[in-house]
Amino acid sequence: MSAQRSSQVAPGEPESLTTLLGGRTSAIDASLPPVAFGLAWWLSGQSVLVAGVAAVLVGLILAVWRLVRGARPAAVLVSLLAVLVGAVIAVRTGQAVDFFLVRLLSNAASAVAFAVSVAVRWPLLGVVVGTVLRQRTRWRRDPALLRAYGRASWVWVGQYLVRLVVFIPLWAANSVLGLTVAQVVLTWPLVALCIAVSWWVLRRSLPAEHPGIRHPQVD
User: Fold this and answer.
1) What pLDDT shows up at residue 125?
2) Would you say 23 and 29 are in contact if contact means Cβ atoms under 8 Å apart?
3) Is the pLDDT reported for residue 73 higher than 90?
4) Domain-located, residue 211
5) Is the Cβ–Cβ distance between 103 and 82 less than 8 Å?
6) Which of 67, 178, 195, 207 has the most neighbouring CB atoms within 10 Å?
7) What distances in angstroms separate CA 33 from CA 6, 53, 61, 184, one per listed residue?
8) Alpha carbon distance 217, 32 (integer Å)
9) Is residue 214 part of a domain?
10) DSSP 8-state code for residue 136
11) pLDDT at residue number 66
12) Is the pLDDT of residue 117 over 60?
């Protein structure tokens, strides 16, 4: 990337994208309940009930910790609810792999949502970043920024599809430990890669004279 383009990005802006989209902490937290589930299932002689209880306990501890650190209650509740629903499904069906059904379905729904958002010219990456930056819909009235967010949103579609390509065969093969490992590998490492690539796409898609995502150019 040229020095000219780099000089036009506000100081700290690359790091801010990671922070705005949840950062490392949220991604790592998301992998801990599934790890607790997989380890408890294995150590307890494949007891789905023990595994479910372990996952929910870890989820509760993380929820309290995140609330104390000032996380948004709604986001914490959604994360905890996903763990609880996954545990209930697994216990009801008696199949440990069904704990991961919620994550499989959420990734499928997210891929569809991001793709549709680009098609209707409301790219979700722009919606999220614009909301956090308190830009309302100003970012959408900037044609260059709207186009850049649309292109970068496809990177997020790819992230969710990668998980589905890995998760679905493992779920079909009834591989609990495989899904546990995949959850770890495809959480923070994949999120970090997705953020880095989407940030690169964003910057490359904007004209050289554009001041960046914090400064929509609205007539």
Assistant:
1) 94
2) no
3) no
4) no
5) yes
6) 195
7) 39, 10, 10, 10
8) 41
9) no
10) T
11) 86
12) yes
User: Mean pLDDT across the stretch 53-72?
Assistant: 90
Residue with tokens 């802006």, as numbered in its chain:
13
Task: Give pLDDT tens digits for 178-198.
Answer: 999 999 899 888 988 998 899
Tokens of 62: 């993380």
Q: What angle do CA 116, 71, 199 make, to 5 degrees?
A: 45
217 within domain boundaries: no
Number of domains in the chain: 1
| Token pair in block for residue 57 | 């306990």
Range of the domain at 85: 3-205
For residue 133, report the phi and psi dihedrals to the nearest 5 degrees. Answer: -80, 0
Average pLDDT of the residues of the chain: 87
Rg (CA), the chain: 19
Q: How many CA atoms lie within 13 A of 183 on its CB side?
A: 26
Reading the block at residue 39, the tokens are 């380890």
Q: What is the DSSP letter of 10?
A: P
User: Within 94-137, where are the H helices?
Assistant: 101-119, 124-132
Helices (H), 44-175: 48-68, 73-93, 101-119, 124-132, 143-172
Average pLDDT over residues 71-92: 90
143 phi/psi in degrees, rounded to 5: -55, -40
Residue 210 lies inside a defined structural domain of this protein = no
